[in-house]
UniProtKB/TrEMBL annotation, chains A, B:
GO terms for molecular function: metal ion binding; methyltransferase activity. SUPFAM superfamilies: S-adenosyl-L-methionine-dependent methyltransferases. GO terms for biological process: methylation. This is Jasmonic acid carboxyl methyltransferase. Signal peptide: none annotated. The lineage of its organism: Eukaryota, Viridiplantae, Streptophyta, Embryophyta, Tracheophyta. The keyword Calcium does not apply.
Length: 364, 364
């Protein structure tokens, strides 16, 4: 499976689009705001006020969150400049995601974004040039020493590929991660190791690439879905475990071949806070300035009482492209109705939450 | 009419897409190739071999021509480096067009483009980062002194807007450019002046913006559809005059209201070679290195004998977004069938040709 071709959030602005279903990510951005502000202010003042402030948002996706991040950064720098009685810099912002992302939708909203920015900030401001740089962030995207600030929100839990040992058949012909579609409580140790190895390689490549692309003293703020399922006492489960159950029900009803489900593993690994820290330290390109974790409810911002349906729609916006690529001809509406029921049942017993890790780094 | 919203080539790769119908533009690029090569070689050697070579293609559209231009530039620089036994630079390429352009289609073809580039050039090459910068080139798109080389092919005949005097009603209520949809042989002097004024303002703004964005000694190669309809002896007409006739036939048949057609003028003005030269000289930011004109057959590359249909499809890919925005509910298939007939009849008598101006400039 070529990740660059199949992994992307649902485009457009229809009811299953990521644009309409990214409230968790929005909540996460809100919680990470103080870290982001602190990081930008420090960077901006310590870098001798660059005339052109170059920023990248890696894994930007499409939808309201995409440009609201840009807006946040511009606001912080602009406020800092006002306090210090300096002219705001020119901004050059690069939105990055895989080539399958719906950049057209982002671009269509750019003229009104820019117009309102200019109107609010006045003539002393900007300009703010917003470009797109498609490609995988597990590799180089920019020339050497180009960027001042890098941001990535809710993207780094996606892997560049599924671990090979999960794709190639084991000698006995049995699937290694049977009953699961990604790393889960019931996954054997070998599966954890295989997923962790890919995570470690990906994340080191990410850090090394950014180190090359950033100016000395450049800052980076990352938020990533973290995991505590490796805590033995944990009774909770992840949405992906519930998704696995919904798919397995469809196997039992003959709607999906068992071997097809056995062969499906998500390119997804949510690391523990310790794993994130350790890789940053071992790789050595960046120093940790702040490191925080917090929990976000799966159904953050649900107001209509349809908690299961809301969470299912959020996940659909994220996972439909990958599911559709593997399970061709599968009735997606059917799958996501079953999934919504599983979530509703779960939320009657447990508080569905997702751990988020937010980290602020500086180029060492 | 907000040009930024409505002017764009047809997206995707269907039978009326620009991707499938841009053979004239391809022919034009082919003819301009020697100028492009000469310009890049000179620039590259005189600029002390920049480590990161920054390029913009303004009005890139989407389709096979978009990346083949990037490929051409990369090839020329790479060849030059091989001859001089130097390492090729890192390339940072910015594709620009209005926000309504189908950038998604361009991005989808990027992974295979990059892969084949790396394979052919070998490990000593690159990398070549291809980004998109949406926005109007009649204004700023990049920070100061950022670009080494700028290219724009078959875009600068599109205006930022329709002249106001053609949109606001004249005192007598009669349309100023009646019977035409852009500047034509039969247009009155006032129409010519109105279109020329917008062209002059646009082109000066274009040159001034690029001057600010380019490094000292930076080069620019522009190709633009030129005009010789102001030559009194000229018996030929432009495709747009034939399009006007097809639309007028539909007025006579009651399919379009006459006032609706009277109110339609294209944001299009093909300047004469003298007009281009004069504006460059008056504006003063750039020195002309080479200035050439040549003619290209409307049906360049037509191989199936369906000359009228082929030309009509080329124009449809370019003009459908604007026509559809003004003449809502008009049957486009019907219009373009009539248009194809007009072209076929014309090509039985005349050799349909389009003048192209190619100019190579250096930042003064």
């Amino acid at each position: 499976m070529e990740m660059e071709q199949v992994l992307h959030m649902n485009g457009g602005d229809g009811k299953t689009s990521y644009a309409k279903n990214s409230t968790i990510q929005k909540q996460g951005m809100h919680k990470a705001k103080p870290i982001l502000e602190d990081s930008i202010k420090t960077l901006y003042c310590n870098n001798n006020f660059p005339k052109c402030f170059k920023i990248a948002d890696l894994g930007c996706s499409s939808g309201p969150n995409t440009l609201s991040f840009v807006r946040e950064i511009v606001d912080v720098v602009d406020d800092t400049c006002r306090c210090l009685n300096r002219k705001a810099p020119v901004f050059q912002v690069f939105l990055n995601d895989l080539p399958g992302n719906d950049f057209n939708a982002v671009f269509r909203s750019l003229p009104s974004f820019t117009a309102s920015l200019m109107e609010e900030k006045g003539s002393n401001f900007g300009p703010c040039f917003v470009a797109a740089m498609p490609g995988s962030f597990y590799g180089r995207l920019f020339p050497n020493s180009f960027l001042h600030f890098v941001h990535s929100s809710y993207s780094l839990h996606w892997r560049s590929r599924v671990p090979e040992s999960l794709v190639s058949k084991s000698p006995a012909g049995a699937a290694l991660n049977k009953g699961n579609i990604c790393m889960a409580k019931t996954s054997p140790h070998d599966v954890h190791k295989a997923y962790f190895d890919v995570f470690e390689r990906d994340f080191k490549l990410f850090l090394r690439s950014r180190f090359q692309e950033m100016v000395p003293g450049g800052h980076m703020v990352l938020t990533v879905v973290g995991s505590d399922i490796r805590t033995p006492s944990s009774k909770t489960c992840t949405v992906w475990e519930l998704m696995g159950m919904a798919l397995y029900d469809m196997v039992l009803e003959g709607l999906i071949e068992e071997a097809k489900l056995d062969g499906f593993n998500l390119p997804y690994y949510a690391p523990t806070p310790e794993e994130v820290k350790r890789v940053i330290q071992t790789e050595g390109s960046f120093k940790v300035r702040r490191f925080e974790t917090y929990k976000i409810d799966w159904d953050a911002n649900s107001e209509n009482g349809m908690r299961g349906e809301n969470v299912a729609r959020n996940i659909r916006a994220v996972a439909e492209s990958i599911l559709g690529n593997h399970f061709t001809n599968l009735n997606m509406d059917d799958l996501f109705e079953r999934f919504a029921k599983k979530i509703t049942e779960y939320l009657e017993k447990e508080r569905g939450q997702c751990t988020t890790i937010a980290v602020s780094l500086i180029k060492a």
